[in-house]
Design a protein that fits this description.
alpha+beta
Length: 75
Amino acid sequence: MLSNCWPWLSQYGPHAVCPAAWDSWTLGQCTDGAVGPNSQPVAGVGACDRNTFNGTLAERKTFWGVGNAWLGSRS
């Protein structure tokens, strides 16, 4: 059942709006690299999707089941 899955929203705007089946969202894609906030190109890469995690850095590390090696220091 879809309501048992963690939601990854794709909404190119400043605020994620959760569908009725979920109480909260987990990941949100806020731009496809061309449309949405922070859609400027990444130096040396170009246009990129940008996503946000709905939680703290510690929660993000736990969610992905990894240490801090590649997640950096920003939440």
